[in-house]
């Protein structure tokens, strides 16, 4: 198997890991587990495992850099990791009020939010292709979120939490692609997840104590920690440098159909034909935005 195909598989499996999270959080909720305890357990397990991996493997690969600058970058990662923790908290809150199949669509608004962020950070005009793609994503979202379905009961609290999750996810993606890239993989992931753990504890505070249950931590914490905070960052960091950001973004969009299908199979959520059309439009938009034309010979 060549390196390019390996890179594609790494990113695909990472996207699939993210895609199943919300379904299993809601499944755990339906079986009596509280959201605060689940979110805390996910990040706690992630910090413990990544700290161990960082201790075992990262020291050998650290390049000699200025200690003060390295410390500053680690603090930046912790700060931006708060976006990651808020993403999970808002996302898991949103699916208490709306179906998982709608929640994932709202989370993926980061596609056009990222275009807006790029405009303000890089201070240059956004390309026509990205503007068209962003508008198409919004149209697909209106279909996939059941806005045009008369019999659909929209919960605006769920929609608000979903959009807040998307805003925070946009900040997370910016951090993972541009902050402290010189640090080893496990070290970067550890500090990002540590920031996520800290903000999760602040966000849910005493609710975590009320929902404290060792069985929940052992069972769901290990599962959510592995598929939500350990496996995806490792796979994305291994795969995206090989295949490039454009193709990586396209393959990462697999998170949408995987999330929808897992909700359909495990939670028996109904998915209408209009929703599938909206999802298809969003996926095509992601490909359109990121696919580069072949160079003329």
Automatic annotation (TrEMBL):
This is Threonine/homoserine efflux transporter RhtA. Keywords: Membrane, Transmembrane, Transmembrane helix. One of its GO terms (cellular component) is membrane. Signal peptide: none annotated. Pfam families: EamA (PF00892). The keyword Metal-binding does not apply. Residues 6-144, 157-290 form the EamA domain. InterPro entries: EamA_dom, EmrE-like.
